[in-house]
Amino acid sequence: MKHYTKENFHLTQSVGFFLNKARNLVLMEMDAALEELDITSQQMGIILSLARGAANTPFELSKLLVIDTGLMTRMLDKLEHKGLLTRSRSVDDRRVVNLELTAKGNGVAERIPEIAPEVLNARLKDFSKREFDELLRLLDKFSAA
Q1: Which UniProt keywords apply (predicted)?
Q2: Percent of the chain having pLDDT more than 70?
Q3: Which of 1, 8, 53, 100 is the most exposed place for a label (fewest CB within 10 A)?
């Protein structure tokens, strides 16, 4: 089913506009809250993914977080410069770069769950449990590949 036509498409009333606006609001609020850890919300995704074993290489992180490889490289450079992670070549395949959090990176990863839920809960404060569950369900459906 086509929900939009050239006659009824209005930028500020489109799904894309609302998703982008919501994303920008959450990123802005999350970035402000994470400032004390000296990381951004995008860097938070990398750190938590590594800490929880969801990904171990730049390629895996790029796929998981839907970040292009160029931006991923720049973010990894910054995190490495801050002393939060290290890169090493795979012994089995020199083309593969393995990533590992440093002790400092693990310390940051431990602090994130104290901060991030507060930001999200503030944004979701007017949602009922049912609305929250429905929002998650619909976003999952919308973002399914």
Answers
A1: DNA-binding, Transcription, Transcription regulation
A2: 99
A3: 1
**Judging by DSSP bridges, how do beta strands 85-89 and 97-101 pair with one another?**
antiparallel
Q: What is the pTM of this model?
A: 0.89
Contact 72, 64 (CB under 8 A): no
**Could you report the per-residue pLDDT of 96-111, keeping only the tens digit for each?**
899 999 999 999 999 9
Question: Could you tell me if 88 and 98 are in contact, meaning their C-beta atoms sit under 8 angstroms apart?
Answer: yes
Phi-psi map region of 53: left, alpha, beta (phi>0 left; psi -120 to 50 alpha):
left
Q: Is residue 5 part of a domain?
A: no
Q: Any idea what DSSP says for residue 30? A: H
Asked whether residue 2 is domain-assigned, the answer is no
Task: Name the residue with tokens 């839920």.
Answer: 117
Secondary structure letter of residue 85 according to DSSP: E
Are residues 59 and 69 in contact, defined by beta-carbon separation less than 8 angstroms? yes
Torsion on CA atoms 118, 122, 124, 128, rounded to nearest 10? 100
Question: Is the CB of residue 72 less than 8 Å from the CB of residue 61?
Answer: yes
- Specify the number of domains making up the chain: 1
